[in-house]
Design brief:
167 residues; 6 helices; globular
Length: 167
């Protein structure tokens, strides 16, 4: 659902000559913010799960599907938002250990893949730590929304000349 939403939104904005990348980031931040608002009153974690738990999951899943579509549309190589196993597989498949000729190798590709795996691991650690420290899930979602929104606003404020919209 998120990928469909992202594709339709980004294509619709692009057809009208507007900056689809910024709109996609703002829409993702809005979805994360909505997820945080829905989660705000939920007490504790674990069973029994309520309809609000499922609603938060559905809204955040749409935001992540939208992010996947945005990274694909922007032609980000080896995007770390796709399943973590793909980044790990590409990292190992392109290493000197395997020498698979169908997987691009080289220092640049391996560096990008290593950075993706490290970022995934660091994000997992940060998320686990925040929940362990009793940071409420809505605060975590609002922090993520703020980061995405800040990125979109910085991109929107940057001069457009000489810097095309991501492919």
């Amino acid at each position: 659902m998120g990928a469909v939403l992202g594709s339709r939104l980004e294509s619709g904005v692009d057809v009208h000559g507007r900056r689809w990348f910024v709109v996609a980031l703002v829409a993702e931040a809005a979805l994360l913010g909505v997820g945080a608002l829905i989660a705000w009153g939920i007490d504790g974690v674990g069973p029994p799960l309520s309809g609000r738990h499922y609603a938060v999951t559905a809204v955040v899943a749409r935001a992540m599907g939208m992010r996947n579509m945005t990274t694909m549309r922007a032609r980000v190589p080896d995007p770390p938002t796709t399943p973590a196993t793909r980044s790990m597989t590409a990292l190992l498949g392109g290493s000197p250990l395997t020498l698979d000729p169908r997987i691009p190798s080289g220092a640049r590709a391996q560096g990008r893949r290593t950075a993706a795996v490290v970022a995934l691991f660091a994000g997992g650690l940060l998320g686990a730590w925040t929940l362990h420290e009793a940071v409420r899930p809505p605060v975590v979602l609002l922090t993520a929304a703020g980061g995405v929104l800040a990125t979109g606003l910085l991109y929107a404020c940057a001069p457009r000349a000489g810097r095309p919209e991501p492919a």
